[in-house]
Structures are given as C-alpha cells and as structure tokens.
Write a structure and sequence with these properties.
This protein has about 200 residues and is an alpha+beta fold. It is built from four helices and eleven strands, in the order βααββαβββαβββββ.
Amino acid sequence: MIKTTAPFIGIPLHGRVSSFRRFSVGEYQQLIDIGILTENDDLELLDGHLVNKMSKNPAHDGTLNKVEKRLLKVLPEAWDTRNQSVLSLKTSQPEPDLAIVLVDPDNYTTRHPTPDDLGFVIEIANSTLNTDREDKSPIYAAALIPIYWIINVLDRQIEVYTDPDLTTPLPSYRTRTDYLPGQEIPLILDGQTIAQIPVADLLP
C-alpha cells in the first residue's frame, strides 16, 4: 500500500477549453428536457463544459460488472449502486462508472443523486486514466464527495483519494492511497469500515 499526503492537483478542464461557452447545470438539463440533447449524443457536463464520454471496451465493461457485483455483496441495506448514471453537482452532471448512494424511497425517479446522497464514486480507468485523475478528481473534490476510487486497469492498482480540500486554487484530495493485488481495500461509508475487499476481486 502506497500512501501520500501531498495535494493531488490536476489540470483544470476550463484551462484547456476556455474559449468554449460554459453551461450551468440548469441550462444543460433544459437542453435535455426539450430534446436538443438526447442519450444518443453521449455527452456529460463537466465543470460547465459538454464533454464527449469515452467509448468503452471489454476490459472496462467487464471490470465494471465485476466490481458492482462484488460491492453489492457487502453493501448495507441503506446503500445501493448507480451504474453510469447522472450525479447532480454544482457545475457538473458527471456519469461515473459507479456511485455508491443512499437508497432513495422514489428510486431516484424524480431527481438525480446529489453529494448528500453519496458515499463514494468509482471510475474504471482503462483508456481514461488522465481524464479520471486530472479532470474528474477536482470535480468530485469540489463537491466534497468524501472518497473517490480509480480502478486503474492499466497499472493493476486501485487509487483511493480521500479528504477533499477546497483551500487550493483547484479543489483536490489531500491523500491518495494505492492498493495493489495481494492487499485488501477498506470499504468505508459514513466514516465506518464496512468490509475489507481483496484488490484482486476488483481487477480483471
């Protein structure tokens, strides 16, 4: 297990596309509601920008399926998984590979989950490692999502980011801990360790 306490600071998305118009979450949702944007457009809103979602390959999808099945075995009844579904944040509506959310009486049929509903989020990084580290990490930290996992398929490790920090110019997580095959990763919800899961159970 490798643990660092230096701030993890990525490259701000808006710094690379500053000439493009930014959309609010409300505007983005309106584009969907009136049919200008549809599921076929394959976009997500990241820090006010419409960003193409990356195409997926068998390694990504197979790992996602494996991780979700493993987590469902240990999640308490009050928690559930959301698979590539929208989260509603202040300036973004990302669609993480998995989000661990509080169970909603209406099954989120009338709203998207917000940060108050979230235990942690997970991205499966096969061809998207830089995006997941540099673009999505600051977005999740800005929303004060307490824990962010990157399942790094390329390097065969799970990167766990904790302790969001809003005092830096770009929001970041203060701590990154890398878990390798042969180790166990703690599943933490509301500050409580629910289970210890072998890393090998979450990698392809």
